[in-house]
Write a structure and sequence with these properties.
- The complex is a heterotrimer.
- Chain A has one domain: Rossmann fold.
- In chain A, about 40% of the residues lie in helices and about 15% in strands.
- Chain A is built from four helices and seven strands.
- In chain A, the strands form two sheets. In chain A, strands 2-1-3-5-7 form a five-stranded parallel sheet. Chain A has a two-stranded antiparallel sheet with strand order 4-6.
- The longest helix of chain A has about 35 residues.
- Chain B has one domain.
- Chain B contains ten helices and one strand; from the N terminus they run ααβαααααααα.
- In chain B, helix 5 packs parallel to helix 10.
- Chain B starts with a helix and ends with a helix.
- Chain C has a domain of about 230 residues.
- The chains are: A alpha/beta, B mainly alpha, C mainly alpha.
- Chains B and C meet through strand 1, helix 3, helix 4, helix 5 and helix 8 of B and helix 19, helix 20, helix 22 and strand 3 of C.
- Strand 1 of chain B pairs parallel with strand 3 of chain C.
Chain lengths: ~150, ~290, ~650
């Protein structure tokens, strides 16, 4: 069974204007019914497969973003939602902003927009889901290689 | 010969219960979605979730976690086996409590604020359900003359005739046991704002999958307990029991969708009062009527 | 006979020797160790010799000399109470002591005493009690050696009276042996009063105001019980013309509920309820917590409180379906429930243990009061398992206190990392107290069955709700022990060797007793019941269930291996606990909104606004007192 059948989300708001957050939450409302695809908004990194991050990263939340990412079990995919999460956006030049999410964690999918629309977000998640399967395959291959090495 | 039938029953339980439990969960999610005017996930979604969880890496917060969760899984399955083998209801109940204690210990050992809050609430939930389960078990004994499941299913009239109050009381605590809203305090399948996932916050990957799996076992076990109220010597009563179980499950889903979550003290008070009124009065009645042996 | 004399007299001898050894020395430790070993050996020898013959043995049919000595002893005890009563201006204890002792002395001196029956009996129940007192009691004394050294290191403000303390412990053991071996009511009364006064002296050990206050509370409550005992003796002597407890039980069980036997049984039951700290007399046991840990362990687990339930179990056949039986059942059942609720609101480890003791004793008392074969079986097994598991809990709590300086359960957070061995022992103790397949639970199970068969709905409800609350307070303690905070380091383990020996022995006893439970049940408990109820033995736990429980035991043992298999050879990656992403390096500190690190503190729930002592203790005591008063009035009124 593929991992893509059950992508669970974690949503984190960096220093966004909340526009993208509202859109992310809108995308998970019954109107769009993402549960059709097995999507669940978990709110817990330890249960999540896909990390949706909105807003840029600043000095204060840098550690938080890193920790959330570290506490997600492999395989995992990071989706930066909105232009701020992609590269800092309108806040890029602010004194406290480090830039997009990719300054602290590896981002896989970029969903631009100000704010990103629910359709775009869902599209990003769909891309992330495909990537999840890919990553699982890689993980398996690495595991069996390692296991093989151990047996030798 | 009889031994082999018992073994067969146990094996059937171990193999089939996860499927039944998983399907019921899928049904739950589907029906809930329909209540909310959505299409909802596929019926087999819980199995997809489980498969995914087994495929994920597992992160642990300490070395005891796996051990304690192992205890939870083992004793939950063991309880089910004991029940379906026709064993002693009380012993099955004690084994279930032991399993539950392992689960609580696992949540305690995580030492995270969310697990800790969840586990305190989970203990309150256990304190709410325990009296009613015990009283219902006593009720079965007084109504049928035996604590053995194998004897209880052979009675002439369904125990529910003598135990209507206990049945209602048990339905009430079933909501707590299944962690359905309004009593999904310790952990929930709905979003939880203040404590993330409560007791299961720090369980990941295949360890979390084991938790889901044993919840399915437990679900089947609890419904089997409901069925015990209905089943009698007549084989057709099994069909009736299945129908009643499904109705009860549907009722739980309905309640889950209609009521908002309550605070622990409201749950505690209501559970004990319901236990005392429905369980206690029913017990008094059967003692008074002396329907024994 | 020699071994019986040894069991009764040797502890007194050891007490005298110890009281003379004022200086702390290797020699004194040696004396304690040797005495403990001898007592254990003697108790085991008694058990073995008795079991090999299997016949009830009766001794000392004529014992005028001993009778006089015991009379003198009773007067001495009364004078001792007078001394303390006048010295601390607590005149009510003087009155109570006089009211209990003087009539007995008068009756004996005036020659009304009934003679011609044995004074000492050895039967199965006696042997069980001797084993409990001998083994658990001696282990506690052994533990006291190391404990008292640490105690006085921590509490330099108290005068070091260790010799006195140790000698009283041994007097206590001697008195307990005397009590369980005596068949004559007056003799029992004498030993009964010794235990009351010993507990008084031990509780007042530190001589602080609170200790003195609590010791007098213990004294008056126990003397009140002693007064009840004395009334029972007088009634037996003048109305029934008997002096032997077995005769009373026989008459009682043959004339079930007849008014003339109900009175002494009620008085004895009343005395037993005070001794085993049932509500409304629970106060003295809680007050006993001010004393050093060996005291509480000895009072709570092996001796003092067991004296009360021992008497109830003896009386059990005479209580079935009678008013005194009803009194014991109601008070015991209510106490089981109420004390377990109160235990939830406590965070002091010893206080939780005290409430749990009261609660468990309530259950034992209720079982004895039901007075059927099954319930007595449950009562005896509960008594055995409780003695072992509870003393283990007390002593390990004391050891934790000596190591970390606190006995608060909140401070035991993460003990499994800081003091792994002690935590492990404690976990065994807690498992032993309330979880399947350990002993207490098996006995509770039998208790439930017997309650259901007796048809007493109140008891069933008390048990159903009480087991929910019991589970709550034990599990949250268990949870504190098992929590694994990342930053904590092992704590220096400063437990003495003799403490270690005691803890290890008791912990293994908890496990061994569980495995051997069918053997104990068949060879020790069943004969007691056959003798008591004159029925051929029924099996209380269905035969098929015993292997299932053993299977559960095996499952717990193989759990580590199974857990390994369940993870399917996956590599687990350790991470920190989830704290919303703001952990500060470990899972005990987090970054607050000002960017500063803050300590996290995880507390258990106590529900003080719902179950607090100030909220429900008084109403509970009032209810229990009302039950006792009403039913005692009914009993006495029935005769008049």
């Amino acid at each position: 069974m593929k991992m893509s059948k059950s992508p669970w989300l974690l949503h984190y708001d960096g220093s966004s204007c909340n526009g993208c957050d509202i859109e992310v939450l809108a995308a998970t409302t019954p109107v769009y019914d993402v549960e059709r695809f097995g999507v669940v908004n978990t709110g817990n990194p330890k249960h999540a497969d896909i990390f949706l991050i909105t807003g840029g990263v600043n000095d204060q939340n840098k550690e938080v973003v890193k920790q959330l990412y570290d506490q997600m079990p492999d395989p995992k995919v990071v989706v930066a939602i909105g232009i701020c999460a992609c590269d800092g956006g309108i806040f890029k030049e602010c004194y406290n902003i480090l830039g997009g999410a990719d300054k602290v964690i590896p981002v896989d999918i970029y969903v631009p927009g100000c704010a990103a629309r629910p359709e775009a977000i869902i599209d990003g998640v769909v891309k992330a889901v495909a990537l999840l399967d890919q990553k699982r395959e890689q993980m398996k291959a690495a595991e069996s290689a390692e296991g093989g090495a151990e047996h030798d | 010969m009889e031994v082999w039938i018992t073994v067969l029953k146990v094996v059937l339980f171990i193999v089939l219960a996860p499927f039944v439990g998983g399907l019921l969960s899928g049904l739950d999610r589907k029906i809930t979605a329909r209540f909310q005017g959505r299409q909802g996930p596929p019926l087999l979604q819980p199995f997809y979730d489980l498969a995914k969880l087994f495929n994920k890496q597992s992160l642990i917060v300490n070395k005891f976690q796996v051990f304690l969760i192992g205890g939870y899984v083992m004793f939950t399955v063991f309880t089910g086996c004991l029940f379906f083998a026709g064993g002693d209801l009380l012993l099955a109940f004690f084994a279930l409590t032991l399993g539950e204690t392992f689960f609580l210990m696992a949540a305690f050992s995580a030492n995270s604020p969310f697990s800790a809050m969840g586990v305190q609430r989970e203990m309150v939930q256990t304190m709410c359900t325990e009296p009613m389960i015990l009283i219902a078990t006593i009720g079965f004994y007084r109504a049928t003359g035996s604590f053995m499941v194998s004897d209880i299913v052979k009675v002439g009239t369904s125990p529910i005739v003598y135990l209507p109050g206990m049945f209602i009381g048990f339905l009430f605590i079933l909501t707590i046991k299944l962690r359905k809203s309004p009593f999904d305090l310790s952990t929930s399948h709905h979003a939880h704002q203040e404590m993330v996932k409560g007791t299961t916050t720090d369980l990941t990957g295949n360890i979390f999958a084991l938790i889901e799996l044993s919840e399915w076992y437990e679900q089947v076990l609890l419904l089997a307990y409901i069925a015990l109220f209905i089943i009698n010597r007549n084989p057709w009563s099994i069909l009736a029991a299945v129908v009643v179980c499904l109705l009860c499950y549907f009722l739980e889903i309905l309640v889950d969708n209609v009521f908002p979550r309550v605070k622990w003290d409201k749950m505690f008070r209501s559970a004990w009062i319901v236990t005392l009124i429905f369980g206690g009065v029913n017990l008094l009645a059967i003692l008074f009527l002396n329907v024994i042996h | 006979m020699g071994i019986i004399a040894f069991l009764i007299f040797f502890p007194f001898l050891a007490a005298v020797v110890l009281s003379l050894m004022k200086k702390q020395s290797k020699a004194r430790d040696g004396v304690v160790i040797a005495s403990c070993v001898l007592i254990i050996a003697a108790a085991v020898t008694l058990a073995v010799t008795f079991l090999s013959s299997g016949r009830t043995q009766e001794y000392l049919v004529e014992a005028p000399l001993w009778n006089n000595l015991i009379l003198a002893g009773e007067i001495f005890l009364m004078l001792l109470v007078f001394y303390y009563g006048f010295r601390y201006r607590k005149y009510y204890v003087v009155l109570l002591s006089a009211a209990g002792t003087i009539p007995i002395v008068w009756e004996e001196l005036a020659g009304y005493g009934v003679e011609g029956k044995n004074h000492i009996t050895v039967d199965y129940l006696t042997v069980i009690m001797c084993l409990i007192v001998g083994v658990v009691g001696s282990l506690i004394c052994l533990y006291a050696i190391g404990y008292m050294k640490d105690y006085h290191r921590h509490h330099t403000e108290y005068r070091n009276r260790t010799p006195f303390f140790l000698s009283i412990l041994f007097v206590f053991l001697g008195a307990m042996f005397g009590l369980v071996l005596s068949a004559n009511l007056s003799w029992m009364f004498f030993f009964w009063e010794i235990t009351s006064i010993c507990s008084f002296l031990l509780i007042g050990y530190s001589q602080t105001d609170i200790a003195i206050r609590n010791s007098f509370r213990a004294l008056w409550m126990n003397l009140l019980g002693g007064f009840g005992f004395a009334m029972a003796i007088l009634y037996c002597t003048f109305v029934l013309k008997i002096a032997n407890i077995q005769d009373l039980v026989n008459i009682g069980s043959q004339n079930g509920g007849a008014t003339f036997v109900v009175v002494p049984v009620a008085f004895l039951a009343f005395a037993a309820l005070t001794k085993s700290a049932q509500m409304p007399f629970s106060g003295w046991l809680l007050g006993a917590m001010v004393a050093p840990t060996p005291t509480s362990a000895l009072l709570h687990s092996a001796t003092m409180v067991k004296a009360g339930v021992y008497l109830l179990i003896r009386l059990s056949p005479a209580m079935q379906g009678t008013v005194p039986g009803l009194m014991v059942v109601l008070v015991g059942g209510f106490t089981f429930f109420a004390a377990s609720v109160l235990a939830i609101s406590q965070s002091d480890g010893k206080k939780v243990l005290a409430y749990s003791t009261i609660s468990n004793l309530g259950l034992i008392a209720a079982c004895a009061g039901v007075g059927t074969y099954e319930s007595a079986w449950a009562a005896i097994l509960l008594m055995i398992f409780h003695a072992v598991a509870k003393s283990l809990m007390f002593l390990s709590t004391g050891a934790v206190e000596n190591c970390t300086g606190s006995r608060d359960i909140e401070d035991m957070h993460g003990l499994i990392v800081r003091l792994p061995k002690l935590a492990f022992v404690m976990i065994i103790g807690i498992f032993g107290m309330y979880l399947a397949p350990f002993g207490m639970l098996i006995a509770k199970w039998a208790a439930l069955k017997s309650f259901v068969d007796s048809g007493n709905i109140l008891l069933m409800l008390f048990l159903a709700f009480g087991s929910g609350t019991t589970m709550f307070y034990w599990t949250k303690w268990l949870g504190k022990l098992i929590a694994v905070p990342h930053s904590s380091r092992p704590h220096p383990d400063t437990i003495h060797r003799d403490e270690r020996v005691t803890l290890a022995t008791l912990a293994s006893l908890v496990v061994i007793l569980c495995i051997l439970f069918p053997v104990i049940s068949a060879n020790l408990v069943r004969p007691v019941l056959v003798a008591m109820f004159h029925t051929t033995s029924l099996s209380v736990i269905t035969r098929g269930d015993v292997p299932i429980m053993l299977l559960m035991m095996c499952m717990i043992v193989i759990l580590p291996v199974a857990a390994r298999l369940l993870t399917l050879g996956k590599k687990n990656k350790p991470v920190l606990a989830y704290m919303a992403g703001v952990n500060k390096g470990d899972d005990c500190t987090f970054v607050d909104s000002f960017g500063e690190s803050k300590q996290m503190y995880l507390a258990n729930w106590y529900f003080t606004d719902l179950f607090g002592e100030e909220k429900i203790l008084k109403p509970c005591l009032a209810i229990a007192a009302a039950v006792i008063v009403v039913l005692m009035v009914v009993v006495i009124g029935g005769v008049l």
